[in-house]
Batch of 2 targets.
Target 1
Amino acid sequence: MQVHLINHPLIQHKLSLIRDIRTGTKEFREILEEIATLMAYEITRDLPLEDVEIETPVSKCHCKMLAGKKLGVVPILRAGLGMVNGVLRLIPAAKVGHVGLYRDPESLQPVEYYCKLPTDVEERDFIVIDPMLATGGSSAAAIALLKRHGAKNIKLMCLVAAPEGINLVNEQHPDVGIYTAAVDLKLNEHGYIIPGLGDAGDRIFGTK
Ligand code: PRP
Ligand code: URA
């Protein structure tokens, strides 16, 4: 099972702030973006480096720079959009794809309504972004879609995960590492994460 809990104190603190029912849309958005940047720092920890020679004002030296691996980030609409800019702050050269999925309220099954990916999917490593991993249906479907387009190396970045969602993604995509700031207790009868933070899309965009 590939679950990476990113529980840096700053992330835990900020996550508690946005779980709070009293936190309004503006603050929720700002803090979610900050958390995404902090999580991106951890997710990119294994990016390959190459040796370079640099001339400082004092002397030449051998240093390391990113080897220029091609990256793509794919937010799952809508709520994934709330984390994209935070990730791009650290990896600004990444291309951005979009996958639109909503969860049918009765069946809880994901319904695809949009897909636009970079043209060179086969050449890129991807980070799929969705703050909520509940039943796991949406994330698993987005990952399957990327794989159908030729992606081979995919990580899943979420904020709050339920054990049910972790298990589903692991079953369907054992090659995909899940990076989350919290593993919560369980789902309620409507498929909401307990304690979770409510409906992420609604809290980001101020809808109901
Ligand atoms: C939410 C959330 C995830 C999904 C998680 O999206 O942003 O995409 O539910 O649930 P799952 O793991 O059970 O699939 P929602 O369907 O509410 O759409 P929205 O982001 O457009 O509000
Ligand atoms: N989607 C959300 O936005 N929140 C949940 O708790 C579950 C699914």
Target 2
Amino acid sequence: MPLTPNQTLTLLNSLGHAPNKKLGQNFLIDGNIVRKSIELAEIVDQSPVVEIGPGLGTLSEAILATGADLYAVEKDTKLVAHLKDTLIKTHHNFDLIEMDCLKSPLGNCPHQAGSKPFKIVANLPYAVATPWLEMVLNTALPERMVLMLQKEAADRYSASPKTKNLGSISIFLQSAYEIHSCHNVSANCFFPKPKVDSTLIRLDKKETPVYYTSEVKAFIRRIFSQRRKQLFSLCKKDSFEGAEAWVETLIAKGTSSKVRAQEINLQSWQLLGHTQLDHPQNDHTNNDHTNNVSN
Ligand code: SAM
């Protein structure tokens, strides 16, 4: 069961720790949200689960109770020390590294070809949610992600064409995942209360996920950074070699030459992508385990 606001405050005081805004430290204090996250994750016994920012361990404890092998990444030294004194002592299935999730997006979770499929369950530090998610997409694709996010980020991830929220991250994510926006979550479910709205979302890996090379991603980002300009003229000038051929294919398929980035559908972007059974590894994963604090 999560701690009440008073119990959380007492624990933080006993650790000599004040919640750090920059690290997005809004701790879960609502049992229903913890239960809902676990329910949505549908964790099968001993399957690998990644958690980003275990904090005081509220969500971690519930994940561990399912029998999952938990791989977590936490940046805050004091919170890591607390977890070492508590959950890590009592759970052999808890592997924690003290690190920035932007250096190690999946912690020590095995994700090479042939490893067990894994899931991610996390109440994310909102400031790093998008760059972290992009790194996950470049590293290895989890079967499912259950993520607590700032509502604004969830709206961008799930945005449809012809809406102002559509951006490059919407294309990258929707090409690989079905997004189910599940619950708006009240600020009362956290201590301290965040000033932004939160949403719990579930993302399921598509049967044939599409991914993009870093060159194509950079091209898509450039196009969205000039979203008011017509795609055709942007592609004529762009340094990406396949740009012109791509836009001409779209026009041959009936797209107007005056179209702008946010007006075209996912299938059109996916003509720039690739599919393959095993996602390519890249150099984002930090395999230096010297900060491993597991037992
Ligand atoms: N999981 C806990 C819960 O639900 O109560 C805490 C969630 S809190 C929203 C975010 C957590 O992420 C904090 O513990 C914070 O220290 C950690 N964190 C923030 N930035 C991080 C980063 N770049 N890498 C790893 N952990 C980070």
